[in-house]
Amino acid sequence: MISAADRGEVWTIVVAAGSGSRFGAQKQFLDLGGESVVGRSVRVASGHGDGVVVVVPPGLVDDFHPTGTSDGVVVSVVAGSSSRSASVREGLRAVPNSATVVIVHDGARPLATDGIYERVLEAIDSGADAVVPVVAVTDTIRHRRNGGIDRSELVGVQTPQAFRASALRSAHQSDADATDDATLVEANGGVVSLVDGDVTNVKITTPPDLEVARLLLDRREETT
């Protein structure tokens, strides 16, 4: 295990290049508590490393100007591509070779906490190639054809996910696609560790999700 002081450079890729087809709008730019959804994601990410690369839809690179980021943190904005994995690769190209740890976070999860960032980084320090925050599955799960599944064996996957930079770059060399980057690292022979996520770290996919996020944010601010 290495200490946080010996961790090296940490960069975060915030992926926000989606078209918003399921939402009906580009949800990443909608308002959440006085800032955009992705703007909040970038601001929180900036508190946990040396730089942030924001991947936005092509044509909007010059229109996104994050505010409130931590002092001294470099923020770059690049154009995304045709799939999530391809957009992550665009972000990786903008991450300096000096980075030793790369975090990948979905811009549509604006309520990720400092605690989640700290847990994924600590697990990287302990030797994992990839770290995934997870939450328990509370619904009963069923195959469409084959009946029920033991939900105790299942978890819900969240971001931010942290990676040794070398493991993430190697996993993306094949140009493969997956719904998350840990899947690519694991398929490439990497060791994946799981840490506790947070049930309030919701992903905004449909309009009701945004309303839930606003309620959760209001409640969080009331208790601080």
What does this molecule look like?
The protein is α/β, with parallel strands linked by helices and about 220 residues long. It has a single domain (about 10-220), classed as Spore Coat Polysaccharide Biosynthesis Protein SpsA, Chain A (Alpha-Beta Complex), CATH 3.90.550.10. Helix content is about 30%, strand content about 25%. The chain is built from 6 helices and 12 strands. It has helices spanning about 35-45, 85-95, 115-125, 165-170, 180-185, 205-220, and strands at about 10-15, 30, 35, 50-55, 75-80, 100-105, 130-135, 140-145, 145-150, 155, 160-165, 190-195. Strands 1, 4, 5, 6, 7, 10, 11 and 12 form an 8-stranded mixed sheet that branches. The chain has a two-stranded antiparallel sheet with strand order 2-3. Strand 2 (about 30) and strand 3 form a beta hairpin. Helix 4 (about 165-170) crosses helix 5 (about 180-185). The chain starts with 8 loop residues before the first strand and ends with a helix. About 40% of the residues are buried.
